[in-house]
Amino acid sequence: MAAQTASVHKIRHHYSAGFIIWTIFKYFTLILVSFTSVLPIVSCVITAFKSKTEYQNTNVMQLPKVWKLSNFAEAFQMANMGRAFLNSLIILVFVLLGSILIGTSLAYALNRFKFIGNELIRNLFTFAALLPGIAMQVSTYSIMSNLHLINHLYGYIFLMMGTDVISIYIFIQYYENLPVSLDESAILDGANYFQIYWHILLPLLKPAIVTCIILKGANTYNEYYCAHLYLQKPELCTVAISLYTFTGPMGNQYNYICAGVIISLLPALIVFILCQDQIYNGIAAGAVKG
Question: Which of 45-54, 151-160, 189-198, 278-287 bottoms out in mean pLDDT, i.e. has the lowest?
């Protein structure tokens, strides 16, 4: 009996020691990751309030002696961020609407109708998703140039709507969880295929739509390469392009860049705070299994 008791205490001792070591490692890792994630943001906020001279002569983590709130107004004005926000809003609204309509209707056709070439189209989408976008820019730029879509907001909108393979697959996976009996019942009641898609299936896709809006919206709002390539006129700049106003061969104005970065983050932060419940629910419900 004494031997069994000693064995039990020994097992508990090893279990407690292992549990304590694992807990320390877990929280140390979380603190380290949190610190490395927050550090650039803190540095950006501190730099945004410094003058150019103070930034050049102090450490990035050193607090400014005089907090220059005027940096935000000057950055907003010099980078023409008012126009940039308007352009980004127009692009974002039309790209999201177009991507949702195209993605849901195409996924509806690929999932509900079995025709010759169905699997081929799905495989082509998979192949297109694996190709790096920058590798196809030569041919894409040639097509855009021949169609006279360069330096036009609508041309850039068409381009962004046509590069959303991930959303199509999300919609296809969600359609697979919707029973075909819904379609059959609607057909018996006299509905056509468009009415089934628009009035019955599309409202049921709300979780998947929210997920795609988050993914596509963040990608479109932060996109720089294509916006810089296809929107070369100053009056067509987006928020991502406007931040490069303060870069040049003679040096970079990091205090204005950081101020512009904070300004550009505010709309996304406000939307996240106001809609965080819908965002979390949409991501959780939209993560369907095929």
Answer: 278-287
- Nearest alpha carbon to residue 240 among 256, 226, 255: 226
Instruction: Give the model confidence (pLDDT) of 81-124 as tens digits.
Output: 999 999 999 999 999 999 999 999 999 999 998 888 888 888 88
Identify which of 58, 19, 119 has the alpha carbon closest to the alpha carbon of residue 254: 58
Mean pLDDT of all residues belonging to the chain: 84
d(CA 129, CA 117): 18
Q: Look at residue 146 and tell me whether its pLDDT is greater than 90.
A: yes
pLDDT at 132 > cutoff 70: yes
pLDDT digits (tens, 9 = 90+) for 235-270: 999 998 998 888 875 568 888 999 999 999 888 888
Residue with tokens 């906020």: 45
Q: To the nearest 10°, the Cα dihedral for 175, 178, 182, 183? A: 20
CA-CA-CA-CA torsion for 117, 123, 128, 132, nearest 10 degrees? -160
Residue 156 makes CB contacts below 8 A (sequence gap 6+) with 91, 149, 226, 227, 230, 231
> Between the CA atoms of 138, 144, 149 and 150, what dihedral angle is there, to the nearest 10 degrees?
10
Closest CA to 104 of 223, 222, 200, 218: 200
DSSP state of 116: T
Say which residue the tokens 């997920």 belong to. 211
CB atoms inside a 10 Å sphere around CB 217: 17
Distances (CA, A) of 192 to 74, 176, 180: 57, 20, 14
Max CA-CA distance within the chain? 90
